[in-house]
Amino acid sequence: MTDTSILVLATGGTIAGQAGSATRRDYRPGQIEIADFLASFAELGVTARLDGRQVANIDSVDIGPAIWRDLHSACIGATRDPQCGGVIVTHGTDSAEETAFLLDQTLPTAKPVVLVGAMRPADAVGSDGLRNFANAVRVAADPQAAGRGVLLVMGDQVFAARDARKARTSGASAFAGFPRGPIALATPASLDWLSPPWREDEAARFAFPDTFPRVPILHAYAGMDADAVQRELAAGAKGIVLAGMGSGNAPAAVLAALAEAVRRCVPVVRSTRVDEGLVDREPEDETNGFIAARALGPAKARVLLQLLVASGVSDPAAAQAAFDRR
């Protein structure tokens, strides 16, 4: 461990949840305050200087721009504090990939920023929260964790925010990394990096938005018509993400309506509802003006499109480049 401290920003989630019984399936997330959580962690004998701050204590399905702004501000402060070696964000797993990716795109990479959660509440049989947190402490305290963007630690694995996704609804190994898999293996006693840093000393790629533009996700399905596209345009959508069939496909009427949206200066990203796989550019994308999501699923494609729209990026080639880069 280093001599610097690690800032722990708590937002709630299952890692701070309680069921009142070791075997109950139902539980309430966001019940344990960060001071109590860190006290229980200290009993494990792991030596680290941890400074806790309660940002929220909620179910992560309720997280959004206001809490994101508080997290971002706290992380920026930590990057400027020479006494802070890194940041850990305790977070519910349902929206962790969106929070991680947003911070990944709006923070510099000079210090480690690590999200961590749990799939089982603190008082459940086989609770994974303290072990995941111990792993996150090891990652955040390692200088080699810098230069990789924001990281997510779950199930003894470390994922880059761009790759991390919740792949299963239950189980301690619920997260996966696509397309690159885990970038490190972590335990409370060891940390093994599987690849070198790729974003050393990189500035933030985007400014944190003053407001988040309306960008809906439309899920394609058999028999879908253009009505959903028209409703979102009428509601003021500033961009649209298609969670398409297969490699980002949709019925012809839907694609025609989306192409019309692009002509009305509403950017459209083709992603996929399939769990894994790339959505590459196709010849029709040039004609229609669509952006290919590449390895980003619909949720993260939405975050990136919001950042592009908020930053005033209107050139399709520049937008595509943002989706292409690691």
From TrEMBL:
<feature type="domain" description="L-asparaginase N-terminal">
    <location>
        <begin position="6"/>
        <end position="195"/>
    </location>
</feature>
<dbReference type="Pfam" id="PF17763">
    <property type="entry name" value="Asparaginase_C"/>
</dbReference>
<dbReference type="InterPro" id="IPR037152">
    <property type="entry name" value="L-asparaginase_N_sf"/>
</dbReference>
<dbReference type="InterPro" id="IPR036152">
    <property type="entry name" value="Asp/glu_Ase-like_sf"/>
</dbReference>
<keyword id="KW-0378">Hydrolase</keyword>
<feature type="active site" description="O-isoaspartyl threonine intermediate">
    <location>
        <position position="14"/>
    </location>
</feature>
<dbReference type="InterPro" id="IPR027473">
    <property type="entry name" value="L-asparaginase_C"/>
</dbReference>
<dbReference type="GO" id="GO:0006528">
    <property type="term" value="P:asparagine metabolic process"/>
</dbReference>
<dbReference type="InterPro" id="IPR004550">
    <property type="entry name" value="AsnASE_II"/>
</dbReference>
<dbReference type="InterPro" id="IPR020827">
    <property type="entry name" value="Asparaginase/glutaminase_AS1"/>
</dbReference>
<feature type="domain" description="Asparaginase/glutaminase C-terminal">
    <location>
        <begin position="214"/>
        <end position="323"/>
    </location>
</feature>
<feature type="binding site">
    <location>
        <begin position="93"/>
        <end position="94"/>
    </location>
    <ligand>
        <name>substrate</name>
    </ligand>
</feature>
<dbReference type="InterPro" id="IPR040919">
    <property type="entry name" value="Asparaginase_C"/>
</dbReference>
<dbReference type="Pfam" id="PF00710">
    <property type="entry name" value="Asparaginase"/>
</dbReference>
<dbReference type="InterPro" id="IPR006034">
    <property type="entry name" value="Asparaginase/glutaminase-like"/>
</dbReference>
<feature type="active site">
    <location>
        <position position="14"/>
    </location>
</feature>
<comment type="similarity">
    <text>Belongs to the asparaginase 1 family.</text>
</comment>
<dbReference type="InterPro" id="IPR027474">
    <property type="entry name" value="L-asparaginase_N"/>
</dbReference>
<protein>
    <submittedName>
        <fullName>Asparaginase</fullName>
    </submittedName>
</protein>
<dbReference type="GO" id="GO:0004067">
    <property type="term" value="F:asparaginase activity"/>
</dbReference>
<feature type="binding site">
    <location>
        <position position="60"/>
    </location>
    <ligand>
        <name>substrate</name>
    </ligand>
</feature>
